[in-house]
UniProtKB/TrEMBL annotation:
PROSITE patterns: CYTOCHROME_P450. GO terms for molecular function: heme binding; iron ion binding; monooxygenase activity; oxidoreductase activity, acting on paired donors, with incorporation or reduction of molecular oxygen. Residues 1-21 are annotated as: Disordered. Gene3D superfamilies: Cytochrome P450. It comes from Sphingomonas crocodyli. This is Cytochrome P450. PANTHER family: BIFUNCTIONAL ALBAFLAVENONE MONOOXYGENASE_TERPENE SYNTHASE, CYTOCHROME P450 FAMILY 4. InterPro entries: Cyt_P450, Cyt_P450_CS, Cyt_P450_E_grp-I, Cyt_P450_sf, Cytochrome_P450_Monoox.
Length: 471
């Protein structure tokens, strides 16, 4: 049958109607400074207006900062590749993340970043996809047992479950131990508090206003997260340097063994905590967000669930999902990729202008903020067909191959692209396939989830779904 794209008016032929999942309806025109302040208080994407999704380059003047949004793909390539080394991460980003990760490989710039990256690179050998698969499988098996044991006669909150499994996977990879339920819940709640407080604190700073305790409360939430794994890091750090510790084959061991490429000095305990915090945050929060949105999208598309269940059955049969099966799950992979396109966990990459630069006839001065937004680029109709629609098979469409190459950047782009992209995709495919194989998902009679964008993109309220036995 034929259906019409509700955004662009394009026609669509297929067995199922076009599904456009929720996103904030953009304002008709650019909001005033005051209105932008109010809407940005809890979510960046709610400040956008219609032209934001089609413009090549936007400009906004704030009381203490000029910032620009670059959607032109040539400009984006220039900034993200940064061959000129002129577009480091903006101090504003460090301001948002410092209580959580300090001066780590994610936030550092220039020579400091290069030296830190050289030190942490060996640790990522432990994220080798085949090597880490048993840890992933163990965490996913525990998730499935947890869901099975819940009262499934009523909707179940998905966000905490996905946070637990993603955090457990990276926990096992960093520390070689499981993450218990109480600790996972503490991390989920503390990170939620962190985002609730750091976002308004950031808006207040942008407007040159006092932060009224928001930053202090964010620091307390960050300390609560660190308290979960800090004792493990401290005990193993002390044992390692006293020569009494037993070596483990994990990320923490590699960080303790790392040496500075120039001075030969090891990481201090505080520096290891910063690196561990970064890997842990990047390794679980973004994956948890994506898997939560993917399960919601599936709940709205029963036909897709059945197609993917058939794919899993065809590839794995009655056997448990093994590492060798994941390569054949193209449909599940496309689901994960399309979820990342529609709901990129990190919606905005923030860079600093360090020398007067002309871009698209605009002169950008020192200190200006330049934003590259996967949220906007991945929803721009100049890049994608029917960009707000959920269409996982677009990644098999030759007509969208160029967009998939140039206008798809949920993990970043250039030399600072996320080193854990393959890790995230593997855990996402394994987790989603395991859920699809066991359950049919249904969305209850309730308002649709609303995405809000702070440090990461999450539903405003917990997504709840029915998990019915597939039988």
């Amino acid at each position: 049958m034929a259906d019409q794209c509700p955004v662009t008016g394009e026609r669509h032929d297929g067995d199922a109607p076009i599904f456009t999942p929720p996103y904030p309806v953009p304002h008709k025109s650019k909001a005033s400074l005051f209105k932008r302040f109010l809407t940005g208080w809890s979510s960046w994407i709610h400040t956008l207006f219609e032209k934001s999704y089609t413009m090549r380059m936007g400009e906004i003047r704030l009381p203490r900062l000029d910032f620009y949004i670059a959607n032109d793909l040539e400009v984006v390539d220039r900034v993200m590749d940064d061959r000129e080394k002129a577009f480091p991460k903006h101090p504003f980003l460090n301001d948002l993340l410092d209580p959580l990760i300090g001066n780590s490989v994610f936030s550092a710039n220039g020579e400091d970043w290069e030296q830190q990256r050289a030190m942490v690179n060996p640790a990522f050998a432990h994220t080798n996809l085949k090597r880490v698969y048993p840890a992933m499988q163990g965490a996913v098996d525990d998730l499935m047992a947890q869901i099975t044991a819940l009262d499934r006669s009523k909707p179940i909150g998905v966000d905490p479950l996905m946070t637990h499994v993603a955090a457990d996977i990276i926990y096992r990879t960093i520390f070689s131990v499981k993450l218990d339920g109480a600790s996972a819940d503490a991390i989920y709640r503390a990170f939620h508090r962190y985002q609730e407080n750091i976002q308004p604190g950031a808006m207040l700073r942008l407007y040159g206003l006092p932060t009224f305790g928001y930053r202090r409360r964010a620091k307390k939430a960050a300390a609560d997260i660190h308290a979960v794994f800090g004792p493990i890091v401290k005990a193993r750090h002390d044992a390692f340097h006293s020569g009494t510790g037993e070596a483990q084959k994990d990320i923490l061991q590699s960080l303790m063994e790392a040496r500075h490429p120039v001075t030969g000095a090891p990481f201090t305990y505080e520096q290891i905590m910063e690196q561990v915090s970064t890997i842990f945050l990047a390794g679980h929060e973004t994956a948890a967000s994506t898997m939560t949105w993917a399960l919601y999208l599936l709940s709205e598309c029963p036909h897709l669930q059945e197609a993917l269940a058939a794919e899993i059955e065809r590839v794995a049969g009655d056997a448990p999902l093994g590492f060798e099966h994941l390569r054949g799950l193209d449909g599940v992979r496309n689901l994960f990729k399309e979820t990342l396109r529609l709901y990129p966990p990190v919606s905005f990459f923030v860079r600093e202008i360090t020398a007067p630069t002309t871009m698209r006839d605009k002169l950008l001065q020192n200190g200006a903020m330049l934003v590259v937004s996967p949220w906007l680029i991945q929803r721009n109709r100049d890049n994608w067909k029917c960009p707000h629609a959920f269409a996982p098979d677009r990644f098999d469409d030759p007509a969208e191959a160029e967009a998939a190459k140039r206008a798809y950047m949920p993990f970043g782009k250039g030399p600072r692209i996320c080193i854990g992209a393959g890790f995230a995709q593997q855990e996402g495919i394994l987790t989603l396939a395991s859920v699809i194989h066991a359950f049919r998902l249904r969305y209850p009679d309730a308002p649709k989830p609303e995405p809000i964008s702070r440090l990461t993109l999450r539903p405003k309220h917990v997504v709840k779904l029915f998990f019915d036995d597939r039988g």
